[in-house]
Amino acid sequence: MAKKTHGLILIAIITLTSFSYDSEKTFNLGNRTCKISTVGQDEKFAKFISLHDNENTSVEAFLEIKSSLPNCRLYELKQNDERLLKYEIKGKVYSFDPNRIFSSIGIKGTILKYNQTHPQELENGLSLFADSLLKTINLKSPDCYIVAIHNNTNNDFSVLSYKNSKDAEEVYVNSAEDIDNFIIVTTKADFDYFKDKKRNVVLQSVNAIDDGSLSIYCQKKNCLI
Question: CA-CA distance, 144 to 142, in Å (whole number)?
Answer without folding.
Answer: 6
